[in-house]
Each structure stands twice: as C-alpha cells, then as structure tokens.
User: Fold this.
Amino acid sequence: MCGLCGFVYKDAARTGGVGRVLHGMLLPMGRRGTDSTGIAMYGTPEDGSYVLRARIEANSGTPERVLETLERAGGVRDHAMDGPNLRARVAYDGDLGDLTDRVEAVPHVEVFSIGRSMEIVKEVGDANDVERSSPFAAFEGSHAIGHTRMATESVVDVAHSHPFWARPFPDISVVHNGHITNYHKLRRKLENQGHRFATGNDSEAIAVYIADKLAAGESLEDALRASVYDLDGTFSYLISTAEGIGCARDRFALKPLLYTENDEIAMIASEEVAIRSVDGDATLEPRELAAGEVRWWLR
Assistant:
C-alpha cells in the first residue's frame, strides 16, 4: 500500500506554490506509506542548462569531485548543498545517460534527476523529513507529483524511493502503487533497446516504458492506453512530463486512484483526504478512476 498524489495548473502560463500544495497532500497520505516520501516538481524550464539533483553520502568528502566532474562536462552555473543533497545547474548539451554515468562514477553518489524543469527530492520518512533534508514547500512551479512508500519487495532506502526518473529522458518521472508482475520481461525488452536502470524496483520500468513510447512519437494518451494492456499486475500510477501529468489504473481496479478538476487545476490522489487538504474550490467532487481508465492533463 502506497500513496500517490499530483497537482497541475492547466494554463500553460500559470505557476504557483506547487511545493506547498504537495506538502499538504502528502502529509495525510503518510499512513499509506511510512517508509519514504518523494516529490517530482516542475518549474520554469532552464534555458540552455539542466538542473541535476543528487545525493552524496554524508562525510564522504566527494562533493568537490562531483562538481569537478560537472565542470568538465560543461560547467556548473550554480550549486547548493542541503546536507547530503546536491542541486546544481549544469551547462550541458550531450547525452544525459552519459552525464549520469560520469557523475555516479564518483563514489557514494546517486543521481535522482536531471531535467530542464524537473527536480526530484526524496527521503526516508514523511513529507516533513523531506522538507528538513531538501526544502521543497516553497517551490514555485506548474505541476508536481508525490509518493509515500510502503516497501514490499525492495529495500528501504532513498535510492528505491519514488518518484523515479526515466533516465536518460529529461523531465519524465513516475510514482506507482502496486506490483508489475511482468516487470522482468518488460525490463529485458527495454534493456535490449539500450535502456539502463538504476534500481531493481518495478516502478522504474514504468517510467522508462512511457518515456520510450513518447520518444518514438506516440502521444501521452496513446502511451497511457497501451500501458493498461502491456503492464501485468495490479497498479495505479502517475506519469509526469514537462507538459503535464497522466495517470492510469489497471483493469482489476484494485489500487485506488481519484481525481478532480475545474477550469484551472487538476488534482489526483489515492485518497480523497489528500485532495481535500488543498485550499481551493470546495465544490470540487473527487471521482474514482474506473477499471482500466486513463486520464491526462497537458498544459
């Protein structure tokens, strides 16, 4: 049992306090997943640079080596450390998979995300623990997705926490509740196409699966609809790109997912209490996704 939530401003020109909104949605979802919490936030796209988010093991003495690596790759425009967590703006025009490999070749480093507009922060614990280690509640942006995790098969650590970046595709992330039973078959297929994975978590494969379809020219709608049949098991998930958010529920409808919207915003969550935590239109009525249903909101 895990908790999912998402929020998006529909107007392509509008931004707002999505960090504050997600913090409020994640707190009541904490009981659905007490192991870890994470957020993928989307702000104004960086012009000519990427934002890299990474975790560097405390007291490892390697932040300087990471920054040296980024300088050699193209240059660091600015950076900040919050405890073990690094945020760096990097001038770079090459393959993001290669850049990730070069950074993670430095010992004790895990790259969470690289994107023009996307930033992923996550931590073992609840939303307040994330806020203490990587402050996000003040983030201003266009949309965001979040997750509270109850670990089932993989270990409890930050690397296996959601959201997962669809490396090496920029600005694509996923949060997922459930179990993909054909994960190994799906992963082998994607690996045979040249894709690489950072963890053994089945949720990461969903992100790469959708990103691969988008890169091949499919629409988000088509990719979501295909996933209902290509992914075996019980699941609900949210996929986020620079353009918006999509969601899907499996054909058995065993994992909850609700949404609500008006002309300005859309919200998605595993439980109504998360939607009701957002100050806004009191007339909004959450609706449960039907079995096999998909929804998407593009700015």
In short: The chain has a mean pLDDT of 92. Helices lie at 18-29, 63-73, 96-104, 127-133, 183-192, 202-215, 220-230, 272-276.
